[in-house]
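Blackboard transcription, Thursday session:
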Amino acid sequence: MSTRRGRWLRGAIAAAGIHACLASAALAAQLAPAERRSGYEFMSAETRAMQDDDATNPAVLSLLDGEELWNRKAGAAGQACAGCHGDARASMKGVAARYPAWDAAAGRPLNLEQRINACRTGRQQAPALAYESRELLALTAYVARQSRAMPIAVAADGPAKPFLDAGRATFYRRQGQLNLACTQCHDGLWGKKLAGNTIPQAHPTGYPLYRLEWQGVGSLQRRLRNCMIGMRAEPYAYGAPEFVNLELYLMWRARGMKLETPAVRP
Amino acid sequence: MARAVVSVPSTAKRGQVIEIRTLVQHAMETGFRRTQLGEAIPRDIIRSFVCTYNGEEVFRADFHPAIAANPLMTFSMVATASGTLEFKWTGDKGFSLTESAKITVA
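(Written on the board underneath:)
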C-alpha cells in the first residue's frame, strides 16, 4: 500500500475503523483452544434466547420444510431421502459434525450441501438443487439439526489433508483491495468492534443459520462471500473448491466445539 | 407453502395468565425495494393477525411494511375455559393461513 491510490484507500477506510487492522500488520497467532468462543457468546441476551427456544427460532420454519423434503420422493428413481436413510433423527445424527468430508468419487472433500446434491443426482436421479435455494438450505439445515450439541470432528488427516492445508493458506493470505487476511480480524482482533458490530472468531458452529440481517436462512458460503466483499476481494462462486477448502479449515479450527444448527445470528 | 409454529401451554389453571407465541413463515416484502434493473418489487406482506378463543376474538394485530420477515408475535391472555385457540393470518396476494391449538383448563 505504498502507491498514492493505496494511501487514499487507507485514508478513506480509516473512519470505518478498519485502520486498526492495517496498523497491526503482523499476522495474528492461532487461537488457543481454551480461548475459542462461538459467535453465540458475542450476541445479546435477546438473540441468544431467540436461538435457544424452538418456539421463537425462525430457522425452525426451514427445518419443517426440510423434514417434508426428506420424506418426499424425487427424481427418476422415485426415491425419497427417507427411503434409504430412514429416520434422519437416527441416521443423520453426528453426520454434519464430520463435514466437509473426503469423497472418493469426487476426489476431493465435499461439504454437506454438495453431499446432498451428489445423493440427489446419483441415487435419486433428480436435478441438483441450486446453491442457496430454499430447498437445499432446508434439507441441509434439517440434516445438520440432527447433530446439534455434538462436537465438531472433521477428519484432518488422510486424503483431505492437502485440501485442509489449502484452506488454511486462504485464511492466512492477504486478499482484496483492503489487503486483509481472515486471520487479522478473526484471530487478532476478535471481541473488538468493526463499526457497530463485534468481530467474532469465525467458528462455523451453527450453519445453515438464520441471520437477522438476511431476514432468512443462509449457508456458510453466503457468509464467506459477505466477508470477501467487505474486504473488497472478488468472492468465489458458490460451491467453488476454494470455499470448500476454507470451510474444511474453519471446521477443523473449531474442532471440539458444539454444533448449534440452526443458529441465529445478528 | 407457508407454515406457522404456535406455542400454547397444553394445560392451565382457570384464571391463569398464559403466554402465546406465534411464528409464521412470510417474506414480508416491503414494496419499497427495487431489483437491480430498477423495477419496483411489489409489496407482499401479512396485513392482519387474529386470534380467537372458543370463537371469541381475544387478540388482533395489523401488520405494516416495517415488520421483519417471519414475524414472531407474543401476547398473553387469561385461561378461562378448555377449548380451542384459532390463529389466522391474512395478507397481500390472497395470503391466508390458519393454525389451531387445544388447551385444557382445570
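Lecturer's comment: Residues 210 and 217 of chain A are 4 Å apart (CA to CA).
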